[in-house]
Amino acid sequence: DSYRLAQKIMYMEDNESFNITIPAKSLNEVAKVLNNDEEIEISISDKKVLFSMENVLIQTRLIEGSYPETSRLIPQNFNYELVVDARDILSAIDRASFIKNEGVSIIKMDISASEIVITSRSSEVGSVETITPVSYVGDNLSISFKGQYVYEAIRALNAFQIKIQFG
Question: pTM for the whole thing?
Answer without folding.
Answer: 0.66
